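Long-time lurker. I teach an intro course on protein structure, and each term I like to show students one example going from raw sequence to a predicted 3D structure in token notation. This year I'd like something fresh instead of my usual example. Would anyone be willing to generate the tokens for the chain below so I can use it in lecture? Attribution to the forum is fine with me.
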Amino acid sequence: MGTFSVNIAVGDPQGQRYTAVEALVDTGSSYSALPASFLQRLGVSPHERRLFELADGRMVERDVGETRVRIDGRTATVPVVFADEGTQALLGAVTLEIFGLGVDPVRRRLVPVPGLLMLNACRPQHDAS
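-- Reply from a regular --
Happy to contribute to a lecture. Here you go:
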């Protein structure tokens, strides 16, 4: 699958100010990632440190926080990774799922997809008496 970028807006955790960002759509990345200094300027604070596997197989620890993201006029709070300086902004799989978006690799765009809901197949029996 080819790669492509989309324009998103990343906001402060309160959702009061946003900055436009061109983000590479990366379905192989669990979380969205932005340079740490960019997130810090928005007032995003890390709430945990997690282990991640890079594309080349190396393992690294990175800070993770949450902030507001706007895509096509819709806004949600999403987890974000504090990436190294100079790293291109990435739009990861969890953010896509939160927004209910999938990837159309032919037209190089994001498309709405239905969510999945696996309900218990066993239904309670009702007494007919």
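Some talking points for your students: The longest strand covers residues 59-71. The radius of gyration is 18 Å.
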